[in-house]
């Protein structure tokens, strides 16, 4: 007796899908509420166990031997509102002192991870070490400067050429001496404006004077 080969039909769910979608269980308010609570709980757990905030989730901050300390901030915005109050450098210094993270501190600005240091030796190492020579290029810098400006060009032959041109034509002693009279005039004007504001108001706001001098 010849029996046909039995095949396993794996597409049976396609025929039952319309009936399932038409049922009330899928759109039941309790099911939707349960799924929503589960998603919120997962997001809060990721935020709670991520030193540095939401941008450092999934263990990104724990790649080294010791995780970089820092504030968690808000679940979505991170420490954005903390830095928006007052002067940014004072807020960063206060945060580093509070979290005992003067050498390195991790925090989040929205979805962007940030690392700062308040220690002079660590800052010197970051600025002079070849491991930190390259920096990530933002889309704004790529669009405005075509990744060719000396401040955003990748470390290599092209950047060395830009540095050589700047040293020869922009910062050469003869070029600097040629503009000395203009610098002295700007400095004298700024000091005069500072003295006038001090005599009128009893206090001086340096920012506008520095911006005018620049």
UniProtKB/TrEMBL annotation:
<dbReference type="InterPro" id="IPR036396">
    <property type="entry name" value="Cyt_P450_sf"/>
</dbReference>
<comment type="similarity">
    <text>Belongs to the cytochrome P450 family.</text>
</comment>
<keyword id="KW-0349">Heme</keyword>
<keyword id="KW-0472">Membrane</keyword>
<keyword id="KW-0812">Transmembrane</keyword>
<protein>
    <submittedName>
        <fullName>Cytochrome</fullName>
    </submittedName>
</protein>
<dbReference type="Pfam" id="PF00067">
    <property type="entry name" value="p450"/>
</dbReference>
<keyword id="KW-0479">Metal-binding</keyword>
<dbReference type="InterPro" id="IPR001128">
    <property type="entry name" value="Cyt_P450"/>
</dbReference>
<dbReference type="GO" id="GO:0005506">
    <property type="term" value="F:iron ion binding"/>
</dbReference>
<keyword id="KW-0503">Monooxygenase</keyword>
<keyword id="KW-0560">Oxidoreductase</keyword>
<dbReference type="InterPro" id="IPR051996">
    <property type="entry name" value="Cytochrome_P450_78A"/>
</dbReference>
<dbReference type="GO" id="GO:0004497">
    <property type="term" value="F:monooxygenase activity"/>
</dbReference>
<dbReference type="GO" id="GO:0020037">
    <property type="term" value="F:heme binding"/>
</dbReference>
<feature type="transmembrane region" description="Helical">
    <location>
        <begin position="30"/>
        <end position="49"/>
    </location>
</feature>
<keyword id="KW-1133">Transmembrane helix</keyword>
<keyword id="KW-0408">Iron</keyword>
<dbReference type="GO" id="GO:0016705">
    <property type="term" value="F:oxidoreductase activity, acting on paired donors, with incorporation or reduction of molecular oxygen"/>
</dbReference>
